[in-house]
């Protein structure tokens, strides 16, 4: 299962990624904001789970989720 963690805090991304890896999820991608996350999702169509922060620069988490739902990416 491929997961994408999106947060503008590198510390929070690391904490979430480490927690997911301890739970057995080794295929975890990271993005700093919604625009970067969308670019990753465009070139990696097999992402199964999106974990996103709400308040981020460039594209916030709500706008990212709306875009993902509209494009039926997950």
The shape is globular
Helix and strand element order: EHEHEH
Number of strands: 3
Structural class: alpha/beta
Mean pLDDT reading: 95
Quaternary organisation of the protein chains: single chain
Q: What this model shows, in words?
A:
- The chain is of the alpha/beta class and 74 residues long.
- Helices cover 46% and strands 16% of the residues.
- The longest helix has 13 residues, at 10-22.
Quick synopsis:
This protein is of the alpha/beta class and 74 residues long. The protein has 3 helices and 3 strands.
Features:
single chain; 3 strands; 74 residues; alpha/beta; three-stranded parallel sheet; Rossmann fold; 46% helix
How would the blueprint of this fold be written?
Layout: E1 3-6, H1 10-22, E2 28-31, H2 34-43, E3 49-52, H3 61-71
Helix pairs in contact: 2-3
